[in-house]
Amino acid sequence: MPVTKFDIEEKYKYQNGFDSYFETEAVPNALPTAQNSPQKPPLGLYAEKLSGTAFTAPRHENKQSWLYRILPACSHPPFTAAQAPNESLGLGPEPFRRLHHIPNQLRWDPFDHDNSGSSGAESGGAHDFVSGLHLLAGAGDPAMKQGLAMYSYAAGKSMGEREAFYSADGDLLVVPQEGALDVRTEMGWLLVRPMEICVIPRGVRYQVRLIKADNGTEQPARGYALELFQGRFALPELGPIGSNGLANARDFQAPVAHFDDFDYGTTASDGPNEYRITGKFNNTLHTTTQRHTPFDVVAWHGNYYPYKYDLGRFNTIGSISFDHPDPSIFTVLSAPSDHPGTAVADFVIFPPRWLVGEDTFRPPWYHRNTMSEFMGLIRGGYDAKKGGKGGFVPGGASLHNVMSGHGPDVESYEGARNAELKPAKVGEGSCAFMFESCLMVGVTDWGLKTCQKVQAEYSDHSWGGVKVHWKGGKE
Ligand SMILES: [Fe+2]
User: Per-residue pLDDT averaged across 189-200, rounded?
Assistant: First the structure.
């Protein structure tokens, strides 16, 4: 365990705000005053600019941070292709050429990644967060900076104490479902628990550790992730809702600067501490071993940084008269395409909420959508799915692709059709979420076959018994 000068209380201090311009220093006066790149940066640090957008991106889109670090990130031996990890990870450019595009509704039992038939994060076994990532579905091409990838992960152990990972392919949105993630980034620490999310921007190096239980064993983790090859997540416009509501900017949290306070040697090549850096580059993994820690950023300022958000802080809004709004009303974060109002990826949640609509079919309506809809369940049950073999349960998922019909299963429909319409709280103790995309997503071999979690009878169990209520034109 690297020695740091920070104890556990200090490392989880945060700065609050979405898309803010922050500055933070772990040692006083580490940030230069009034300029970014002085001839000699303070305290013998190097200045390094981290660009998340083109230099010339419009001011309202421009993302960058200045890092003041002990050694610059460039000081490492050449990367080499990782030995045969990609197939087992479901990574590599090949899966994107072999995706299965099928119109059927799909639903999965909880993923466990080892095909043993057991479910739950305890089967994360020998995998850490990176090796436990499995590509489930995707669209586009990271080399063209277009599209996205959807993953399931299960980790049974922390990444090595001297390991770090980054992706040149995109920003990663992580949705823990079981087990907290102790995420150390170049820019500071984030503790991300189930019912929280985090976003780690393209290029930022990080290490994911699991939390230790009282008996010293690491608590396994499982969840979902979405990698955004194009653009970045923003808060959705609020329109007539006004200036507050949904996810409020002040509830997003960014880390404060931390660094490894140990011997660095005299040059970048003779330090006493080996660190293995793994990079994801066009869906392939590459590694190098450098003689110094990547966690040496003593101070930083900018608006390009990792952040977390507690889903319990989402201000849920809905109808107080009749019908219910489109599920876009539950959007937490939206990554827009170049076409206004059309997202490469929306992250949407279905939190506990009151339903009060009069003369209203209250569950989601039957639906076909030009957008693709991938859903997961963090905890509890989901109000539109009651029955069906296997069901829609925490750790599982469903995919309703472009123009694939879906909606409440027969049991949910009949129950809602005949329900007494009193004000009712739905979803207590529950939280489903959706990755919604304007792109048609293909499913990997792993998702469709290898994981052995596809519920073969999902469609028939859900909708095969949908009743005919038509009585020849009579009520
Ligand atoms: Fe839908």
Answer: 97
